[in-house]
């Protein structure tokens, strides 16, 4: 588990712009669990971030000065510069955000990576059919909260797994899930059996580990499991064991890792998600922390269950 | 691990036939690893066999007396009566074997369940493409030896995993695999990296456990893993942990359990397998033990690596 001592804030002067450059200021910084996996020297398929470098991550930024013909002061851009307040760019790595998008934070939330991941992995791997039972872990998180709501829109019965009773309330009362289980207080396998008496058809997994094992106890024939995150083990030393896979055999079930974006699945993502949010069919939950200096603490909170919804750091002017 | 003391041979008289019944005699008894899973009181998705009952299993049997109009003395039938020499049936559960099939043992081998499992799981889940690298565990076993040869026919580079150097020789020299690794003497993950430098596209898994984990270290993007057997853990107490699933994420890889027979995939099974055997493209390896009394010892040998190819008990007249 990281601690705030592992991070350090450094102030350096912002140099003057040259021709063809812009100065951007971070307005919202996205904090996502997968970043933890990169802050590690453990052998991994992901390239670790170098020590003493700026921690990476997506931001919503505003152009505050421009000597670049494509960018004007006041425009908003999506950027991957990570945990810093200002950055200079020649335009590379900046993607303009639709001026009509409101709030702009949606660009790194429901309309951005978390939304695409929720939509893409659920529809591509989960393939939920009306009437099926869909279980979502980290159901109050940025991705899980969206995946569950999309499954509801697709006509499924949706059950969340979360780590607090408060989150259970949010997931069932505000997001419209049919049921929710607090894995910290319930015997998860038995609790799932109770709320999913006919078994689980689709599991949207953000956490892996023992939660996945409890779900496997309760899958139905032909179940599809989208393995999207491994939050339960991002802070582990070495590589923890996985779940016993026997239930896959008996149920001809599938586990598939989600990595990247199958473009065909996402053809309609912007349209669908925009419409669902506009119609109120999808509620977007944001957990906003203010001030760059609070970023490390907020990031650690991702692994101790502090946030409900998308965790953002807002850096005021 | 079972021992021969766990089994007992009982002799009971064979009663006279009534009208509409046949008496069958077991000629070949099929011994398969999955039967071990049924000889257990561990909670499982499979129904355990009752204590003190006859152990189940497929047989090739000959009709030795008939008072049933559909069956004649001398005909061969496929039957699921298990570990016994004679059985009486009203015809239910008996399936006639093609009189032209030679040898008749193929009905419980390459042309029967093991063949269908090799063919069905490889083609349905593995979806091997020419030039891809396919790894097969328990590659000298009844199913693995067939799965690997089918993958060769499909134009793949095929690597076996086995438990002895003798099996390595058989798999590469007799069955035409491109390479083979002895997991008992090699450091498996590193050895696979050496023989599959570009990674593994398809894994046909009969064993699960640490072998699966070593394969996961070496999968390529989009890899497909057919989970067909769990030999490594059929004798375990409780439910052992599974492999760490992180490589699935990084590679958008799939693990799917094989259970039963997707009929579309098997449309051409009888035709294809019969042709491949006739043309010598598939070599059928059989390991024949003689005498019902040797069945328990032979069965235990499945888990200590005694057999090369399909393990059969032949009961002479």
What does this entry show, briefly?
The structure is a homodimer of 317-residue chains. Chain A is of the alpha/beta class and 317 residues long.
Question: How would you explain this protein's 3D organization?
Answer:
- Two copies of one chain form a homodimer.
- With 317 residues, chain A is of the alpha/beta class.
- Chain A folds into two domains: 4-109 and 285-314, Alpha-Beta Complex (Quinone Oxidoreductase, Chain A, domain 1), CATH 3.90.180; 113-264, Rossmann fold.
- Helix content of chain A is 27%, strand content 22%.
- Chain A has ten helices and 13 strands.
- Chain A has helices spanning 34-38, 113-126, 142-153, 165-174, 188-195, 209-216, 246-250, 263-266, 269-278, 295-304, and strands at residues 22-30, 59-66, 76-79, 86-89, 95-96, 133-137, 157-162, 179-182, 200-205, 219-227, 254-257, 286-290, 310-314.
- In chain A, the strands form two sheets. In chain A, strands 1, 2, 3, 4, 5, 12 and 13 form a seven-stranded mixed sheet that branches. Chain A has a six-stranded parallel sheet with strand order 8-7-6-9-10-11, with helices on both faces.
- In chain A, helix 3 (142-153) links the parallel strand 6 and strand 7 (157-162).
- In chain A, helix 2 (113-126) crosses helix 3 (142-153) and helix 5 crosses helix 6.
- The longest helix of chain A has 14 residues, at 113-126.
- Chain A binds chain B through residues 44-46, 208, 212, 221, 227-230, 233, 239-260, and chain B through 44-46, 208, 212, 221, 227-230, 233, 239-260.
- Strand 11 (254-257) of chain A pairs antiparallel with strand 11 of chain B, so a sheet runs across the interface.
């Amino acid at each position: 588990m990281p601690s705030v001592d592992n991070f350090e804030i450094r102030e350096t002067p912002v140099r003057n712009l040259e021709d063809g450059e812009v100065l951007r200021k971070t307005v919202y910084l996205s904090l996502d669990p997968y970043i933890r996996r990169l802050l590690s020297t453990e052998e991994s398929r992901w390239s670790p971030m170098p020590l003493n470098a700026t921690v990476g991550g997506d931001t919503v930024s505003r152009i505050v000065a421009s000597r670049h013909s494509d960018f004007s002061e006041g425009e908003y851009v999506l950027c991957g510069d990570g945990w810093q307040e200002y950055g200079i760019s020649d335009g590379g790595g900046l993607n303009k955000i639709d001026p009509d998008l409101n709030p702009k934070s949606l660009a790194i939330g429901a309309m951005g990576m978390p939304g695409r991941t929720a939509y893409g992995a659920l529809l591509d791997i989960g393939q939920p059919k009306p009437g099926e039972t869909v279980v979502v872990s980290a159901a109050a998180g940025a991705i899980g909260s969206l995946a569950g709501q999309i499954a509801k829109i697709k006509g499924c019965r949706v059950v969340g797994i979360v780590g607090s009773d408060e989150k259970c309330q949010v997931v069932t009362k505000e997001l419209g899930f049919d049921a929710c289980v607090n894995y910290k207080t319930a015997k998860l396998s038995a609790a799932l059996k109770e709320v999913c008496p006919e078994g689980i058809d689709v599991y949207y997994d953000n956490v892996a580990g023992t939660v996945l094992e409890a779900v496997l106890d309760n899958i139905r024939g032909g179940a599809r499991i989208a393995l999207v995150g491994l939050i339960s083990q991002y802070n582990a030393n070495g590589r923890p064991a996985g779940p016993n896979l026997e239930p896959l055999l008996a149920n001809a079930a599938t586990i598939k890792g989600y990595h990247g974006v199958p473009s065909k699945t996402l053809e309609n993502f912007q349209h669908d998600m925009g419409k669902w949010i506009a119609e109120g069919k999808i509620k977007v939950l944001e957990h906003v922390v203010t001030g760059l200096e609070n970023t490390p603490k907020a990031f650690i909170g991702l692994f101790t269950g502090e946030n409900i919804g998308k965790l953002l750091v807002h850096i005021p002017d």
